[in-house]
Amino acid sequence: MASLTWVVSFIAVTAIIFFTGTESDTSLACSVIQGLPGLNGRDGRDGINGLKGDPGAQGTPGSSRTPGMRGSIGPPGKEGPKGNVGLNGLPGQKGNSGAQGVEGPKGEKGDNSGQSATLTNVLNRLSSLERQMNQLKQSISSKMKALLFARGATAGEKTFVTSGKELTYEESKAMCLKAGGQLPLPRNSEETKAILDIAQYYNLHVYLGITDIQTEGVFRYPDGKTLTYSNWNTNEPNQDGDEDCVEMLLSGKWNDRACKDKRLNICEFS
Predict the structure, then answer these.
(1) Which of 10, 90, 118, 233 could form a disulfide with 253 if both were Cys (CB 3.0 to 4.6 A apart)?
(2) Which residues contact 199 (CB under 8 A, 6 or more apart)?
(3) Which domain holds residue 209?
(4) Residue closest to 165 by CA, chosen among 31, 237, 263, 37
(5) Structure pTM?
(6) What digits encode the pLDDT tens for the residues 144-186?
(7) 119 or 183: whose pLDDT is higher?
(8) Is residue 165 in some structural domain?
(9) Residue 262: exposure state from Cβ atoms within 10 A (0-12, 13-18, ≥19)
């Protein structure tokens, strides 16, 4: 329809041009009256597809874009939940020993003047204490000699002293304990002689700290141990009556005796 309208328009235009030219040639005095435009013709028909054209020349390549700048680091995200504890890994192999370090330089010798002064002060004090101890020993020795002259005797590390009183076994034992000693416990002939010297001076028998109160017929020391030394008189102990205590006779021999009897009080100190 468009093609037919176009053809009609073309014929009308051509006719107007033709007749306009003819009239101008015949009479120049005639005026030309312009006609009204005709109606649009119908659309013509589509033409046949033309041949494919040759490819055009290759265009100039476009310039590549420059990469933009790297953006700034964003804020850290929230801490995620704590994961489960993993299994223990296998023990690693023992590493090689490290190289031995170089020994550092020897430091300077310190000042020992302060230590020397302190040591000197200590030695002086020890020397002073030693002098005081020697003086004390001499004083004690002098007083001990005066005490033992009439009332005591020594044997080894033991000292035996008498109060000069005649007491029962229990009374004599209590007096010795109150003084910080005990009834005599002779364990050899030397100690027996020291006790005997006092007994002979007073001409009195002496109670020893040995009894069979714990077990009848078995005489023991106060700590319950059996005797390691004895000096019994002939046929003693005879257990005649209630004889649980032991006395030393003026001969130095031992005899079992009733504990209620009174004998010279002698105490042993060690």
Answers:
(1) 233
(2) 205, 206, 248, 250, 264, 266
(3) 150-269
(4) 263
(5) 0.49
(6) 654 665 588 999 999 999 999 999 999 999 999 999 999 999 9
(7) 183
(8) yes
(9) middle
In the three-class reduction of DSSP (H, G, I as helix; E, B as strand; rest coil), residue 238 is classed as coil
Q: How far apart are the first and last CA of the chain?
A: 158
Contact 247, 264 (CB under 8 A): no
- What are the φ and ψ backbone dihedral angles of 178, each rounded to 5 degrees? -65, -30
- Give the pLDDT score at 72: 77
Type of residue at 85: V
Distance CA 131, CA 120 (A): 17
CATH of the domain at 215: 3.10.100.10
Residue range 226-242: mean pLDDT, rounded: 90
Number of domains making up the chain:
2
Q: Count the neighbouring beta carbons within 10 Å of the beta carbon of residue 270.
A: 11
Tell whether 72 is covered by a domain: no
Average pLDDT, the chain: 80
70 domain-assigned: no
Measured CA to CA, the distance from residue 213 to residue 51 in angstroms comes to 154
What's the confidence (pLDDT) of residue 226? 92
Q: How many Å apart are CA 183 and CA 246, to the nearest integer?
A: 11
- Phi and psi dihedrals of 267, rounded to 5? -115, 150
Q: Which two tokens stand for residue 36?
A: 């009204």
pLDDT greater at residue 22 or residue 39:
39
Whats the size of the chain, residue-wise? Answer: 270
Q: Which of 270, 235, 269 is nearest to 255 (CA)?
A: 235
